[in-house]
Amino acid sequence: MLDQPFRIVSLIPSATEIVALLGLTDCLVGRSHECDFPPQVSACPICTEPKFNPEGSSGEIHDRVTDLLQSALSVYRIKTDVLEALKPTHILTQAQCEVCAVSLADVEQAVAILTGSQPQIISLQPNTLSDVWNDIQRVAAAFNQDATQPLAELQQRVERCAHRTPIAPQSPTVACIEWLDPLMAAGNWIPELVTLAGGHCEFGVVGQHSPWLSWDALIEANPDVIICMPCGFDLERTRQEAQWLCQHPQWMQLKAVQTNRVYVTDGNQYFNRPGPRLVDSLEILTEILHPDRVDVHHQGTGWQPLL
Length: 307
Description:
The protein is α/β, with parallel strands linked by helices. It has 11 helices and 12 strands.
């Protein structure tokens, strides 16, 4: 039983999934416009909205966001009137990426003008898998919950993947692409997941933000496998957007293209969200890289071959 009637607003999808993991979904009274898992959270009022049109190609979205960031702290807007009506006791937000969700500064400014409540702000800033585990523990502690069992179950799944994959000399080289135009490699927790899945991540450094990637660097590395996981795109949209890659004059030079080892994923639901489903993301990577070593099947829902 909960010790008090918490009223939680989550302004980032990964935090919403942590709330659900801890059995606190019934305490969720508001969400961001991107929070959509588990499905029942869709009934909660939406407290944020983008300041830009999220439709269009990768290049068009990149240009819109870049223009906004030159004149604003955030590319998202908080609906303070909705927050006022909801009277939250806690707001979960992030300070990891100003492009991914509302900024901590925006949340603090919004809370400062609320008159009907004084919510506690819990800001998450994960850069590695262990940071995600720590965030789960922090959220659990804030709501008097015990995270021991759910964390143990997640870590058991991680260990199951890691124990079934080959040692480093047999690891295929992998390029994980987080944005397509311009090219950006995936950083933070992704290189760590690739290693656990039995691959060698060519770009990105564990715990560091995602780096921009030139076509010349991609051609020079010539990875065995290319995995597209653009931020905010589902599987079908990633497949559509990846056609831009296929039209690049250097595309056919890549070994991964020549051997049909290019894959598209649902980055929005999995890889881009530093919450419990990073374990699903690890399982997807393991299934792609070493399909004979896993007993989970995300193909068709979490990933597909591009070709």
